[in-house]
Amino acid sequence: MTLDDDLRALSEQEAALTFSHFDHTTAWALGAALKAAAEQRRLAIAIEIQLAGQTLFYYAMPGATPDIADWVRRKRNVVKHFHKSSYAIGLRLQQRQSTLEERYGLSVRDYSVHGGAFPLNLSGVGCIGSVSISGAPQLEDHHLLVSTLAQFLGLSLPAVH
């Protein structure tokens, strides 16, 4: 797959992974599904779900180090700023041979374009929050997040490489 193919697949993922309803109970169920998926893969990750700036779910798996929370925060900030997945923004910058700081004036201290954060999109509304994980390599974080979201929503999606 080319970088353009991956960007198209990411765009399809973002369009397809849309909720018809999302509330505190949905956040809890999605967080539990991500925790179970991480346990199956024996990953030491942190999981965060935010709705309109309020943290509704946070869990750090056994073995997750404290610095992972900062990675989660920085990835989440990318989703909040762009309403796109952190991995998609990273690939777009790679394609443009640029950085967050060069192109947008955003500090790497507060933003990270590594895979693992995804917008929570509500049908007819758009981005209402974010779901973020960190602790594995970025592509693994992205795959875990997208595959769990797809399963949660009963969808099948194209993968990125």
Q: What does this protein look like?
A:
- The chain is of the alpha+beta class and 161 residues long.
- It has one domain (3-153): 2-Layer Sandwich (Beta-Lactamase), CATH 3.30.450.150.
- The chain has helices at residues 3-16, 24-40, 67-82, 86-95, 100-104, 138-153, and strands at 18-19, 46-51, 54-60, 117-122, 126-134.
- The chain has a 5-stranded mixed beta sheet.
- β4 (117-122) and β5 form a beta hairpin.
- The mean pLDDT is 96.
Please summarize what this structure is.
By secondary structure, the protein is an alpha+beta fold. The chain has helices spanning 3-16, 24-40, 67-82, 86-95, 100-104, 138-153, and strands at residues 18-19, 46-51, 54-60, 117-122, 126-134. The longest helix has 17 residues, at 24-40.
SSE arrangement:
Layout: H1 3-16, E1 18-19, H2 24-40, E2 46-51, E3 54-60, H3 67-82, H4 86-95, H5 100-104, E4 117-122, E5 126-134, H6 138-153
Parallel strand pairs: 1-4
Antiparallel strand pairs: 2-3, 2-5, 4-5
Distinctive features:
161 residues, alpha+beta, Beta-Lactamase, 5-stranded mixed β-sheet
Mean pLDDT, to the nearest integer, reads 96
Which CATH class is shown? Alpha Beta
Q: Secondary-structure element sequence? A: HEHEEHHHEEH
The CATH H-level homologous superfamily:
Haem-degrading domain
The share of residues in extended strands comes to: 15-25%
Number of domains: 1
Q: How far apart lie the N and C ends? A: 7 Å
Biggest sheet character? 5 strands, mixed
The largest sheet has its strands arranged as 1-4-5-2-3
Query: CATH fold name, please?
Result: Beta-Lactamase
User: Which stretches of 5+ consecutive residues score pLDDT under 50?
Assistant: none
> What's the shape?
globular
Looking at the overall shape, the CATH architecture is 2-Layer Sandwich
Secondary-structure class: alpha+beta
Pfam family, one: HbpS-like
Protein name: UPF0303 protein SAMEA4384070_02068
Family: Belongs to the UPF0303 family.
